[in-house]
């Protein structure tokens, strides 16, 4: 019944263009995702040695071997700079001016995550609803307090587009969907809920908030095999 209800909601979303929100029902998955964020935040900050404001720092080299396939970067900014300036190319993210972070901090760091083409990372930490599969790597954009670069286990800052244009995510590696299917953008918010919206141009999603993003496809469940019962032989 849950799967049927979700299917009807997604069909309605396709017809109306409205966003669909699926609340997380697995607290373990949400806790795992938050734990991964904390680890990646710590490794990203290790790349910020005497960092210059507004400079991208590749933090992938800070990752241990068990993070093979993951790409990581960090960008340190002054408080309020996101309201006044845009960031046209932070890897796949195009960030417009007008973003507001709360609570107030003197410095903030935008951590970029790319969990790569290994679906084990995406599926284990950000499981999709039944009958869905990833077509693109899972990308993360998360804001943290950047005042103390030795801090660990930081909480996320709230980051929202106050006005103007949304954040654009242009995926570079998207698998081709089967003919006649309709891929969807998915955003996992920082509380574990997944939000589904329409893809534009085959590889582009938009958002007014931070989180984790990908392009996914809903597929049909194969019908059960037909069982043919042969008549019993005559005695």
Automatic annotation (TrEMBL):
Gene Ontology CC annotations of this record: membrane
Pfam families the UniProt entry points to: DUF1191 (PF06697)
Signal peptide: 1-17
InterPro entries registered for this protein in UniProt: DUF1191 (IPR010605)
Keyword Signal: yes
Keywords: Signal
Name the record gives this protein: Plastocyanin-like domain-containing protein
Naturally occurring in which organism (per UniProt): Trifolium subterraneum (Subterranean clover)
């Amino acid at each position: 019944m849950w799967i049927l209800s979700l299917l009807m909601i997604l069909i309605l979303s396709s017809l109306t263009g409205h966003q669909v929100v699926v609340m997380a029902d697995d607290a373990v998955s949400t806790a795992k995702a938050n734990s991964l964020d904390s680890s990646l935040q710590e490794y990203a900050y290790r790349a910020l040695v005497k960092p210059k404001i507004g400079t991208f720092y590749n933090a992938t080299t800070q990752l241990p071997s068990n993070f093979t396939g993951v790409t990581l970067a960090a960008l340190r900014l002054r408080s309020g700079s996101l309201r006044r300036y845009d960031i046209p190319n932070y890897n796949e993210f195009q960030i417009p001016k007008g973003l507001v972070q709360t609570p107030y901090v003197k410095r903030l760091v935008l951590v970029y995550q790319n969990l790569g083409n290994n679906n084990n990372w995406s599926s284990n930490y950000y499981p999709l609803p039944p009958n869905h599969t990833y077509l693109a790597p899972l990308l993360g954009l998360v804001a943290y307090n950047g005042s103390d670069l030795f801090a660990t286990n930081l909480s996320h800052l709230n980051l929202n587009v106050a006005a103007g244009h949304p954040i654009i995510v242009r995926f570079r590696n998207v698998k081709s969907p089967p003919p006649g299917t309709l891929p969807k953008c998915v955003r996992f918010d920082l509380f574990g809920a997944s939000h589904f919206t329409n893809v534009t141009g085959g590889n582009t999603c938009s958002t007014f908030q931070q989180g984790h993003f990908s392009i996914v496809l809903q597929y049909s469940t194969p019908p059960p095999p037909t069982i043919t019962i042969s008549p019993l032989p005559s005695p």
